[in-house]
Amino acid sequence: MAEQVIRILEERSIGILEFRLRPDSDALALESLMETISAEMESRTLGAWVVDLTQVSFLNSAGLGLMVNIRQKVRQSKGRLALCGLSPRLIELFHSCCLERLFLIVKTRSEAMKALA
Predict the structure, then answer these.
(1) How do 48-52 and 80-84 pair as beta strands?
(2) Burial class of residue 63 in the structure, from the number of CB atoms within 10 Å of its CB (0-12 exposed, 13-18 middle, 19+ buried)
(3) Which CATH superfamily is domain 6-116 in?
(4) Of 59, 85, 88, 90, which sits 20 to 30 A from 71 (CA to CA)?
(5) Does pTM top 0.85 for this prediction?
(6) Mean pLDDT of the region 58-76
(7) Where are the beta strands (DSSP E) in 32-101?
(8) Rounded to whole angstroms, what are the CA distances from 2 to 5, 6, 29, 33, 83?
(9) What is the mean pLDDT of residues 108-116?
């Protein structure tokens, strides 16, 4: 992964995972990315996380699996999670896979921050 596919920020005691995933990201690369995310989550010990998908146009099955793994990691630490910035295509994908039931999905990062504050 030569290009940066994630930026991890902290704002008002809320962690932000800002993704720039490519549609063709493979499972091995995303597994490695999940290890990085897990280490960051453990080192920051924050109770709330936002996944910002504004710059993501599509998620393949490995990408969807990554979102579910992030959710599981947050739940294990008794934290809260919100997704934001989903394109109409991603919203449709989440609905078709019934994943909207697992996530709090809002339009903007500011809405996500407000919901988790």
Answers:
(1) parallel
(2) buried
(3) STAS domain (3.30.750.24)
(4) 88
(5) yes
(6) 93
(7) 48-52, 80-84
(8) 9, 12, 11, 12, 25
(9) 97
